[in-house]
Amino acid sequence: MKLIVLLLGVVVFGAWALLSYVLLGGVDASWLKLTLPKSTSEFGDSIGILNGLFSALAVVLALIAVLLQGKELKESTKAQNEQTDALKTQLDHQKRLNNEQLKRSQTMMEQLEQQQMATRALILQAKQQYHSSEIARMDAILDKIDGNHDKSDLFESCRLKKKGHIKSINTIQVELDKLS
Asked: The domain containing residue 137 runs over which residues?
């Protein structure tokens, strides 16, 4: 379209230059049966006749310019719409990636919580084994000094320690039951 406008401009300018050349007497125009202008005022009047033609041509060229601007505006709008669509697609993709990352993070948090619970259970079981072995040791001591009244303080101390260990085992068992 721009090429057509350029060619039209060249043709109009060429026609104007050729007409001016003919009217100035540069070409033998005897076959036209026109009288050539004898002064510059007559030449101006001759060119003034073409004023209407050039005015109409200017209006047509202005309309063509408006049409070209409209076409460029449509193309620009289309490009912006395509860019908007591309950004929406990119945003949707980013949302999906964020959701996947969130799911992975939640899964990792769940695994970490399970590992913490398993570790806590192992610690409680180790404490339970310790208290069980202490109870067994206290039972062995109590069996040895059962009839000996001289060691009644030791007997009472062992009995109280055994009670404390039993209480600790029961507390640990409650915590283990909560973890299960």
From this structure: 114-180
**What are the CA-CA distances from residue 164 to residues 30, 40, 145, 146 (Å)?**
139, 132, 20, 19
CA atoms of 91 and 97, how far apart (whole Å): 10
- Please check whether residue 37 is in contact with residue 45, taking contact to mean a CB–CB distance below 8 angstroms: yes
Q: CA of 111: how far to CAs of 18, 59, 86, 97, 125, in Å? A: 91, 77, 37, 21, 21
Same domain, yes or no, for 62 and 118?
A: no
By the 8 A CB rule, do 165 and 138 touch?
A: yes
Provide block-wise average pLDDT over 10 residues at a time, the chain (180 residues): 76 78 69 71 74 77 86 95 97 97 97 92 90 87 74 79 89 85
- Structure tokens, 38: 């004898």
